[in-house]
């Protein structure tokens, strides 16, 4: 017989947490993720942080059970949105309609690939408002930074929070 929470689709927590404990976990996870990613960037002498990673950290550490916080969405969402932002920048330059087109196209592609990660929707704006980016932007900071966040979230959410992460039953 299934667990009653499985029948209703609700998430069962292995440990009941107070709002204060949840907030502490969010604070520690987010602060740790951004500081370690930033330090790693200094060690390898490459930028690994962009503003949307702060919002990604909110999902990873305050709402890790959300479909938007799962590794597939985190990694592919940022890669897709950044690729779209770079393509529009290279093909059409920078302007209001280009930013609108890039954000809209990034959203549509994330939806079509089932990799929606809301913070990634800001990636095309980061590219365009920053005056454009080179092709290496996909590697540094996007891919390297996202993989750093992912590794930290894997360790933190699984070991520190003591809960299974990523969620494999989210479609």
TrEMBL record:
It holds the Pfam family TM_HPP. Keywords: Membrane, Transmembrane, Transmembrane helix. The keyword Ribonucleoprotein does not apply. Residues 17-166 form the HPP transmembrane region domain. The chain crosses the membrane at residues 20-40, 46-63, 75-108, 138-160. This is HPP family protein. It comes from Paraburkholderia megapolitana. The lineage of its organism: Bacteria, Pseudomonadati, Pseudomonadota, Betaproteobacteria, Burkholderiales.
